[in-house]
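In this section we walk through a basic example: taking a raw amino acid sequence and producing a predicted 3D structure, encoded as discrete structure tokens. The instruction is simple. Fold the sequence below.
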Amino acid sequence: MGVTPLIWIITIAVTVAFFIWEFYAHVRKPHEPTIAESAKWSAFYIALALLFGVGIGMVSGWQFGGEYFAGYLTEKALSVDNLFVFLLVMSAFAVPKMYQQKVLLIGIAIALIMRGIFIAVGATLIANFSWIFYIFGALLLVLAYRQAFASHDNDPQNLRIVQFARRHLPFVDQYHGDKMSVKIDGKRFFTPMLLVIVAIGFVDLIFAVDSIPAIYGLTEEAYIVFTANAFALMGLRQLYFLIGGLLERLVYLAQGLAVILSFIGIKLISHALKVNELPFINGGEPVKWVPEIPIWFSLGFIATTIVVATVLSLLKTRKDGKREAAQQEAEKAEEVAP
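The resulting token sequence is shown next.
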């Protein structure tokens, strides 16, 4: 793709500038965003991501453009699942809504740093060990299985890292604005806000393990991996407030993500079979007859899976809602019956 160091520097600088601007323009003054504000900025960041993808296609070719869009869709879907866990963390620690923006921005910044580290490690491994695709593929199949049967019901306060922090640091029980520490009677104490950030950071680490091998199954270009992740994370704070009520209705999101991760895992393994010379496979020769899955098929498969999972989720929750309403009406009728 021919990305120069200067382009990397400009891209990272612009990404950091966006996060700084987000803090001073929206987060510095605690408030709960309105639906209109969240919708406007969510649309802005999605449009920006799409324009960037078009730019990649026009400048570097639509093969790379397709890889970017497939990676962006996958990372956006994984980020929405990440939002669901953020919602659980916020609820478990009873974070006041007016302070949730700061938690989200810090959490998203940590997520980008974590993913940046994983991207660099992944690029190094791919450049030096082509057989790493087998490892990535197998990892994604395992993660897909766990995703399909995952439960988000675990209490974030029971995380070991949170329990460790509680045992070794002095904490107060009340929030003091959006501060992470406060001085009381000359002694420094930490507030629950720090525990929230610790829990969010741990969640980000787990999700980085999912997301980076997944996107490397769609492209080997580290620049596309980074920008797709950056754009997927941008606007995630606004999306949290925009679809907060909808998150609980996406009951099949985990299963949809499991299908996507399984597909990419199989794609990685098939690619590894084509490029690796391993003595215990095909007499030491690459398996040339294994088909290479084109990027247009990957993009269509991922988009279709997300749409189907969303539609089925909304249909199920709508049906469950009607059933629950009918039961409540029946119970009321029994109560008033003579």
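Looking at the output, two observations stand out. The CA atoms of residues 37 and 214 lie 32 Å apart. The mean pLDDT is 81. In the next section we compare this with other chains.
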